[in-house]
Amino acid sequence: MTDQPRIAMLDDSIGFPPLEEAWEGLLAIGGDLNEARLIAAYESGVFPWYGENDPILWWAPEKRCILRLEDLKVSKSMRNVLNRRDYKIKIDTAFEAVLRNCGELRKNGEGTWISEEIIEAYLRLHELGLAHSFETWRNGQLIGGLYGVSIGHMFFGESMYSSESNASKIAFIHLVEWARKHHFGPIDCQIQNNHLESLGACEIPRNEFMSILRTHLSNGKSIRGRWQMPQL
Q1: What is the predicted pLDDT for the residue at 107?
Q2: 3-state helix, strand, coil in the chain (%, to 5)
């Protein structure tokens, strides 16, 4: 029986340990969610994910979920939804609402990792022009969306939600279209699930993800501020 490796405890310094020191994806514990640390985390291939009453946990999984832009899957039924055009896509007009809706308790009674601490941290990144929301609206009502962080020419997806069928998928498809037009790299989806897999996402080794990350962080300056995109 092997002992659990000692996980690094973060202090006031911004840096992270080598990713190879992660244990089952967990790289470090502690620190804070100030803007400089969050930016350093994303640039290092690391992201925070923890329960509301837990210490801050920093992750660098051995397998990373990404969506290569050319691999997006849009089913026939989803194309019919898009073709109806009975929705409107907006970007960065309701970031806090999307964030808080993503953070609501799930219908099955499980908690959420999007605490007030997380909300405040990503609102600060949004104010810096580095965090963005893609929003699906119908009849003047916000019905779904997603949010994430963009540094260089990478988009790091964080969470999505729907209050009506397909609303988050509509937002995701428009995010991919926006990323294509602006010559972005793959969308970082972090952890694989069935919903992401149905859209074409796949898992790749951590070292392959880091190579992609380095390429697209250096491909161009971050596009800060409020984003805009024409309808499909």
Answers
A1: 41
A2: 35, 25, 40
Domains of the chain: 8-62 (3.30.70.3550), 65-217 (3.40.630.70)
Reference 42, options 176, 204, 213, 230; nearest CA is 213
Under 8 Å between Cβ of 84 and 231: no
Distance from C-alpha of 203 to C-alpha of 38, rounded to nearest angstrom: 23
Contacts of 216 (CB under 8 A, 6+ apart): 152, 153, 154, 184, 185
Q: Could you give the angle at the alpha carbon of 68 between the alpha carbons of 38 and 39, nearest 5°?
A: 10
Q: Is the pLDDT of residue 92 over 60?
A: yes
H-helix or E-strand spanning residue 119: helix 116-127
Summarised one tens digit per residue, pLDDT across range 18-34 is 999 999 999 999 999 99
Instruction: Please name the residue that has the structure tokens 């024409």.
Output: 230
CA–CA separation, 100 and 59 (whole Å): 22
**How far apart are the C-alpha atoms of 47 and 114, rounded to whole Å?**
13
Task: Answer whether 56's CB lies under 8 Å from 29's CB.
Answer: yes
Gap between the Cα atoms of 142 and 145, Å rounded:
8
